[in-house]
Design brief:
globular; Arc Repressor Mutant, subunit A; mainly alpha; transmembrane; 77% helix; 27 helices; single chain
Length: 557
């Protein structure tokens, strides 16, 4: 691998040396041309690589001969954009080294940003994020607003990919405000990404409005490059609105432009939602053909994201209906491979499971099917074993369901009795165990905590121990000790429990609130994600929020 890399580097330097020796063959008419003219010719000759290479070489040669640091970086940036894939990263590193030699924060930040965008286009999101953060380190020291917002836009894309949609929405809105007056493509890209976020949080109406606005703004600004992407986004949105025929039409119309751009990620997503639409229209054979296209892209590029895991779940279900154990095993293997890839690349998402398709359950199902498959080679009586296994699974599921219902019911009754009793925080005799803190300081902090709880300041989103420490004018060590001894909890549990207790009070008092989805309830009490809200609710009450609300509604009826 190292030899291969060294060979590529040597070839790259050889080509540069050869390019410099050929400058005497560059037409004299070019020597008087400025950088803008050369760049325009580079763009215009995208389909004629031989002629384009002349302008690429002369642009960089001119910049080096004039010792123009900014244009040297731009010269390498041109190569990053227009060179072959195996050389892009090498040119990106040359671009960064040239920027560092200039000791210019704008150039260094811009170079790292371009490398991050290159990584992102290759779907190497971890490397992209590292480059974006390095870019931000340098750009934040400057007053270059365009680059500052370009960094924000690209970090927002990473947040979107990782599923932090509300955080991404906030950043995309900032970018839209800035780019609307300063950069047409940045403005349209930000609108498109905002629409995608609205779709993922379930606000399909706003998603449609944003897509429609994007298309109209593109026509108004005479830039229709993003039209296919807005149609692609709207097609997916139509799927979630249950308009399956419209979804197929819009996504299919968008596909040619997406393929021309070699955008394999959006191509994969397009095939998945066309397939899902046919699946919902009860045309599984057509759907499976599209699901296999998603699988082919995964094989060829390694691209996968969490919502695309369902692609394999549906393929497994299809072949299960056909009693085809070999294909079931094949696609379960693919599902596990995809899941492992996501887990290794995004370890902070490893606890997140797509819907209720638990990895352990998949592994167990794979083992069972493998055993059945091996036995079937020798004995057709295996059919009886399958029936027995399914029966036992159903019995186990029923048993667990009944047991959980009983536990949840018991927890619900205990919670309702507790909520009827007066809720008082015990704050006496807590100085034992914290003798290292002045009793007067303890008393002051306790009163501040009581005021904090009474004023419901715990509802603030993304509240941290550091923020609360600053608000109370204390220090983190004292605050943590006093919360632990006065409330018997660590900081995160303390804040989460206050939020959940307050929400339970609201649900008891406000019947309309019981119709809210988990996402809206999480927002109501300041949780940054639905998953964190659900985990906190279960930890506090011993039951899911949906069960608690159902029981409240039963009591009402």
């Amino acid at each position: 691998m190292i030899k291969k890399y060294l060979l590529i580097v040597s070839l790259c330097f050889a080509s540069q040396f050869y390019a410099q020796n050929k400058t005497d063959k560059i037409p004299d008419t070019l020597r008087s041309k400025n950088y803008d003219y050369l760049f325009e010719r580079i763009e215009d000759l995208e389909k004629n690589r031989n002629k384009q290479s002349l302008y690429l070489r002369y642009f960089l040669f001119k910049a080096k001969s004039e010792k123009n640091a900014e244009e040297i970086v731009n010269g390498y940036k041109n190569y990053v954009y227009y060179s072959s894939d195996n050389l892009k990263l090498i040119y990106a590193d040359s671009m960064i080294n040239s920027a560092k030699k200039a000791k210019n924060n704008v150039l260094i930040g811009s170079a790292y940003l371009s490398k991050g965008i290159l990584y992102y286009s290759q779907k190497k999101h971890n490397y992209a994020l590292d480059s974006y953060l390095l870019a931000d380190t340098f750009i934040s020291k400057t007053n270059d607003k365009y680059l500052i917002y370009k960094v924000k836009y690209n970090i927002a894309n990473i947040k979107y990919y990782l599923g932090f949609y509300n955080e991404a929405i906030s950043l995309f809105r900032e970018c839209i405000t800035y780019f609307k007056e300063n950069n047409t493509r940045g403005y349209l890209n930000s609108l498109h990404s905002l629409g995608l976020c609205y779709n993922h949080i379930g606000n399909y109406g706003l998603c449609s409005e944003t897509n429609e606005k994007g298309i109209l703004e593109g026509e108004k600004l005479v830039n229709t490059e993003m039209t296919a992407y807005f149609n692609h986004s709207e097609g997916i949105n139509q799927y979630f609105k249950n308009n399956y025929a419209s979804a197929i039409e819009k996504i299919t119309n968008a596909l040619p432009a997406i393929r021309r751009n070699k955008d394999f990620a959006n191509e994969s997503v397009a095939y998945f939602y066309i397939g899902k639409s046919y699946w919902e229209l009860k045309k599984p054979e057509i759907a499976v053909a599209y699901f296999k296209k998603v699988d082919t892209i995964f094989d060829n590029t390694g691209y996968i994201r969490h919502d695309l895991l369902e692609n394999y779940q549906l393929l497994v279900n299809y072949y299960k209906s056909k009693d085809n154990l070999r294909s079931q095993l094949h696609y379960i293997e693919k599902l596990l491979r995809a899941d492992r890839l996501l887990d290794s690349k995004y370890y902070y998402l490893s606890g997140k499971i797509y819907k209720d398709f638990d990895t352990k359950k998949i592994v167990l199902e794979k083992r069972n099917i493998q055993k059945l498959f091996d036995k079937r080679k020798h004995n057709d009586i295996i059919f009886t074993s399958i029936i027995a296994l399914l029966f036992l699974s159903l019995v186990l599921i029923a048993f667990l369901h009944i047991r959980n219902k009983k536990i949840y019911r018991q927890k619900f009754e205990e919670l309702m009795k507790k909520s009827e009793a007066p809720n008082k925080n015990e704050t006496t005799n807590i100085t034992k165990g914290i003798e290292d803190i002045n009793p007067e300081t303890v008393g002051i902090l306790l009163k501040q905590l009581e005021r904090f709880e009474k004023d419901k300041k715990f509802l603030e989103k993304d509240l941290t121990a550091a923020k609360l420490t600053v608000t109370l004018g204390s220090n983190a060590k004292y605050l943590s000790k006093i919360i632990y001894h006065a409330r018997g909890k660590k900081f995160v549990e303390y804040i989460n429990d206050l939020k959940i207790d307050y929400l339970i009070q609201l649900l008891n008092e406000d019947k309309m609130l019981r119709n809210y989805k988990n996402k809206a309830l999480a927002e109501e009490v300041g949780f940054s994600s639905t998953q964190r809200f659900a985990n906190a609710f279960f930890a506090r009450t011993g039951m899911p929020p949906t069960y608690f609300i159902e029981e409240l509604k039963k009591g009402l009826s």
